[in-house]
Write a structure and sequence with these properties.
3-stranded parallel beta sheet; 7 helices; Immunoglobulin-like; single chain; 3 domains; 320 residues; alpha/beta
Length: 320
């Protein structure tokens, strides 16, 4: 862990730990419905001599070590609780003690919502939808929370030689853009091979991100959900930089040379993000049949019919 955190800090990157609340190898971990031996052995026989109180001490001791011996830790992911029949939740882990200890040792740290404390005031700092793109900013107890979605390039969290369900470049990019468009963050999981390397499929997808981000990173970094007054045109996702007051239109489906919008009067200037080439903004009433005032649009954007060489092109709008 020391080598890991020092390598991150040397690159100016904040440090986070993932910690599994579940340990099927531990001699005190009792049987539950998520255990691979569930249904194969008798519970009373499996649990004989096991003690979750000792297991809870083991958790506390490990958390203490992780948050004491390695300097400032900025984020921790506890994963996961399943407080259902034959499951495990806050009482099994003593989540309240883990949460209190974490904040005591690292007061600035942010903690995810998988300790089963969602109904406790202050019991989580951010929420964690998994393997899907929320269609709006997720809420907890009616309140918008900081959030991030954890996803995979394929159907597996680890390396799987024979798997064929790998996501396309477009699907992977949409996961990133959709997260930012709804105020969140994306963790894209990559499983290394037994040689400790990323396999060619992972390298290919990371390369797709690199190519797209080289030209379009401004629509991601520092951006969040667009103000409600800016309605996303059909087939697009919007992101917004509140400091620069720039709105970004991401084309999930590239239209044939024009796009109707409802916020044209607020645009000072528009351009493609990848090459800074101008995109014409034509207000309704100034463009004949190209800007039908009955459509609900107040303007159209005009650009080349041929799609730029990006899976998802982006238009940057500098707003008044």
């Amino acid at each position: 862990m020391k080598e890991y955190v020092e390598a991150f800090r040397a690159e100016g990157i904040k440090v986070g730990f993932y910690y599994s609340l579940i340990d099927w190898h531990h001699p005190d971990f009792t049987l539950d419905k998520y255990h691979p031996q569930w249904g194969q052995v008798k519970r009373e026989e499996f649990d004989k001599g096991r003690d979750m109180a000792r297991y809870r001490k083991y958790l506390i001791d490990q958390v203490t070590e992780l948050l004491t011996n390695y300097g400032r830790i900025d984020i921790i992911w506890y994963d996961f609780s399943y407080p259902c029949a034959d499951g495990k939740g806050r009482d099994d882990w003593d989540s309240a003690a883990i949460y209190s200890l974490t904040k005591k040792l690292q007061p600035h740290i942010i903690i995810d919502n998988r300790l089963d404390l969602n109904d406790v005031p202050g019991g989580t700092d951010f929420i964690t939808p998994e393997q899907f793109n929320p269609s709006s900013w997720p809420k907890l107890n009616g309140k918008k929370y900081a959030w991030e979605t954890c996803q995979t390039f394929s159907g597996s969290w680890g390396y799987h030689r024979d798997e064929t369900s790998w996501k396309s470049a477009k699907q992977s990019l949409v996961s990133l853009i959709a997260a930012v468009a709804h105020g969140g963050n994306l963790i894209m999981n990559v499983g290394p091979t037994a040689r400790g390397e990323f396999d060619y499929r992972a390298e290919e997808r990371l390369g797709d991100y690199a190519k797209w981000m080289h030209a379009n990173a401004r629509s991601i970094y520092g951006c969040t959900e667009a103000p409600e007054k800016y309605k996303a045109p059909e087939g697009t996702l919007l992101t917004w930089n509140p400091e620069t007051k720039r709105l970004y239109i991401h084309f999930l489906y590239y239209p044939a040379g024009q796009l109707g919008i409802t916020f044209g009067k607020e645009i000072r200037y528009a351009q493609f993000l990848h090459d800074a080439s101008e995109v014409t903004v034509r207000l309704a009433g100034n463009g004949g049949h190209f800007c039908d005032t009955g459509s609900g649009f107040d303007a159209h954007l005009f650009f080349p019919t041929v799609q730029p060489p990006f899976v998802i092109p982006v238009i940057e709008c500098m707003m008044k």
